[in-house]
Every structure is written in structure tokens, then in C-alpha cells.
Amino acid sequence: MPELPEVETVRRGLEPAMAGRLIAEARVNRADLRWPFPPRMAERLTGQRVLGLRRRSKYILADLSGGQSLLIHLGMSGRMLVSGAQVGEFFHDHPAPSRHDHVVLEMEGGARITFNDARRFGAMDLVATEAAEAHPLLAVLGPEPLGNAFDGAYLAARLEGRRTPIKAALLDQRIVAGLGNIYVCEVLFRAGLAPGRLAGSLSRAEAEGLVPLIREVLSEAIEAGGSSLRDYRQADGELGYFQHTFRVYGREGLPCVTPGCSGTVGRIVQSGRSSFHCPLCQR
DNA sequence: AACTTAACCTGATCGC
DNA sequence: TGCGATCAGGTTAAGT
């Protein structure tokens, strides 16, 4: 599920239960997710104090007292469950173990963090904290979309001359790191750009104009996730899913929400992914 | 080198 | 109710 805003929401949800606390016991229930776990991961996590939780793109980094960091990616279906702790307004009891609980962290003080991932596209690795950015999965990433390095001049330069659709270019984590299928659809809708437009065909103004829209869409989604964390009403402590209101994503066949537009939201498939768009106001 | 497609997995949903 | 086809928010490896 998770794109950048969801991962940030998960990070914030984990913080009270993990930051500053000791991992009393780590349990690892299988040898791999997308890739093998690092050797002896459970032993290496047990007894470590979590100094803090960071996010880079769609990755969470838990910095540990021993100088290593736990790198976490949720893939498509990864979830984090917080139990045995107060989460917002509610205390969450430990749930019954379920089928795809792959890694469990018992925190000192009674909180339990459960990583559950049905499709197993997720990943975990251990990396030296000081060299974390050099990890192969992080080294290839483009700038953070909410950071200063991501601006109009940068994006325009990266799109220039590209013969790939703008949809694919914005999904390319090497260009900008953190967007996924949903938010690219939403960004292109707000920009009035057809997903099939070739990246290199955008005018300078169109390319630069994407930057504030990307920031806006992600910021709003993070804010929505934050509110869902604040009044957390789910009984199970599951982090990562929250209610969004999308303008085009998943709205195939429904009327375009642009005032005065008579279009109907359509769906095309680009590189195997659904692109929802309004054929009238996105050109 | 640029770009596209297939593959990795399971589960939920839809049409018959 | 059952069953197959389709789809799912990500990323990499293997194609063209």
C-alpha cells in the first residue's frame, strides 16, 4: 500500500512505542521477504535501543544504539501493528498471531511491534548508520519531494528529452523518490496533464509547475494520515492505512470533479499500472 | 542508454 | 457457494 505519506504516517505511529526504547526481544519467523534477511537479524536486534526513527522516501530507518540501522520497506502489503501499548486514545491488546506476521519486536515496557506482509514484497536489512545513505536501495534514489533539492529547475532538467510518459517518469524513484501510483495520478490530475504525455514534451512551465503540486498532494496526504493517527479508532492498532479522498484515483466511470467539467474519469494501463484520468481536463 | 515488460507473492473482489 | 479471471498502493531483473 504505502507511498511516501503512508510511510511517514507509519513512522510517526511507531515513534511513541519505539523511539528511546530497548528491543527486549526480536523474533523473525522466516528467512526472507523479498530478499533474505541479514544474517542473525533477530540476535542483532535483541538488546538494542532504538535511538530514533527516520524516513527516506518509502523506507523507514530505525537507528540503533550499536551503530547499525534497521532499514524497513513495506512493499505493497506490509503493515505495522502496535499492541500492548497506548496508541492515541486507546490501549491495544496483543492480537492473535496471524498468518503473515514475519517479524515481531517486543519492546521493553510491553509494547509489541508486528511486521505483517502478505505478499512479501517488503524488505528489512541492517546497515551501518553512518553509511546508511550508501545502502544500494537508498543510493539510487532521487531527491525527497518535500526537500529543498527538489525544485523546478531540477525536475525540468530531469524530464527534458525523455521519451517516456510523464506518468512513468514521476513513478521513477531515481527522478523523485516517494511517489507511487496513486499520488502520481492525483498530481497529473491537478496539473491538467494527460498521463500519456511524453515527459520531454512538457513545456518548461508545465514541468516546473509539477513541483508545487507534488508537494501539495503529499503534504495533504501526510496531514490526513496525521489526523487519522490522532483519533485512531481502529481496534487493532494497525498502522499504514487511512482514509483518503482522491480526486481521480479509483474513480473510473464517475464524473470528473473539476467544476464545470463534463468529463468522466477513465482508466488506461501504462506499464502495467492503472492510470486514472479525466480525458477532458488533462491534456 | 532508454524504455518496456515480466516477475516476485497472496488476498480480495467480480462476473459467471 | 464455487471458480476462474482480474486487480492491488512497489521494485528489480530481464527483455526489446
UniProtKB/TrEMBL annotation:
Domain Formamidopyrimidine-DNA glycosylase catalytic: start-end pairs: 2-122
Active site per database record: 2 (schiff-base intermediate with dna), 3 (proton donor), 58 (proton donor), 273 (proton donor)
Annotated ranges, domain FPG-type: 247-283
Gene3D superfamilies in UniProt: 1.10.8.50, MutM-like, N-terminal (3.20.190.10)
Entry keywords, A to Z: DNA damage, DNA repair, DNA-binding, Glycosidase, Hydrolase, Lyase, Metal-binding, Multifunctional enzyme, Zinc, Zinc-finger
SMART domains reported for this sequence: Fapy_DNA_glyco, H2TH
PANTHER family per UniProt: FORMAMIDOPYRIMIDINE-DNA GLYCOSYLASE (PTHR22993)
Protein name per its UniProtKB record: Formamidopyrimidine-DNA glycosylase
Lineage: Bacteria, Pseudomonadati, Pseudomonadota, Alphaproteobacteria, Rhodobacterales
Gene it is expressed from: mutM
